[in-house]
Design brief:
Elements lengths: L9 H13 L7 H8 L4 H25 L8 H13 L8 H11 L6 H4 L4 H16 L2 H14 L1 H15 L8 H21 L6 H29 L8
The chain binds fe (ii) ion (FE2) (2 copies).
Length: 240
């Protein structure tokens, strides 16, 4: 007991971590404010959409990798809540990747375009890092990457994306539903993940592992925004 008595309570730890994430370099990345405020051509929005879709289409795999590795009987029912949203509860046409593909079509992209794009190195590193962590890394780090690292941070990163898309196109609310839906749903998903995480972060050691995973995910996210910044706003093209 003695080594554990100094641990911050799970709730306090999680609210401190969330405060840290609100100020993280990925969440406050300059690319996001630039995307929201700059005038952009269609090619820029298309490049953004095609690269971001690579992350969107793989996300659920992190969860399917991770679920059987979590030593808690409640994990399955908690994950089920998120799976129902991800897969589209009543129809596969509303799965999250399907909603994103609808968005890509409204940008004038054909169905196969996302399969032909060369992923940015930052996109590949993001995906490989998360696949590796969720498949064979520490399960608690992986929970940190998927819970606070994704579900908690996404509702703060998506509003500037919606603003940029709407400012530069005639897309409707329905066309950008993938993004607006996540701004709400992921707040609920973060709460679901926290219910599970709470069981494992009663010790300093557990807290450190969880935080390490969240930071790992956010560092890859920051690099992803860096890559998009370089691609969408190349220096020497009038965007400094
Ligand atoms: Fe989703
Ligand atoms: Fe989510």
């Amino acid at each position: 007991m003695s080594s554990h008595t100094s641990a911050t309570s799970a709730d306090t730890f999680l609210s401190r971590l969330e405060e840290e994430i609100r100020n993280d370099g990925a969440v406050r990345h300059p690319f996001l404010s630039r995307f929201a405020s700059e005038k952009m051509a269609l090619w820029q929005l298309q490049a953004f959409g095609l690269q971001h879709y690579q992350l969107v289409r793989i996300f659920v795999n992190y969860m399917t990798n991770l679920l059987p590795r979590i030593p808690d009987p409640e994990a399955e029912s908690l994950f089920r809540v998120v799976f129902n949203d991800e897969f589209g509860q009543y129809t596969i046409f509303r799965s999250h990747p399907a909603l994103y593909r609808s968005f890509l079509r409204t940008l004038g992209l054909s169905d196969g375009a996302w399969g032909r794009v060369t992923p940015l190195p930052e996109v590949s590193r993001f995906i490989e890092g998360h696949l590796h962590l969720t498949r064979e890394g520490d399960f608690l780090e992986a929970l940190g990457a998927v819970g606070p690292g994704h579900e908690f941070s996404i509702p703060m990163m998506f509003p500037p994306l919606v603003a940029g898309i709407k400012n530069n196109t005639t897309l409707t609310d329905g066309d950008v539903e993938y993004f607006t839906l996540h701004i709400e749903e992921d707040k609920e998903h973060a709460v679901v993940f926290n219910r599970l995480i709470t069981k494992f972060v009663g010790t300093d050691e557990g807290q450190a592992r969880l935080r390490r995973g969240a930071c790992f995910s956010l560092s890859l996210r920051k690099a992803f925004w860096d890559g998009l910044n370089r691609t969408l706003f190349p220096v020497g093209k009038g965007h400094l």
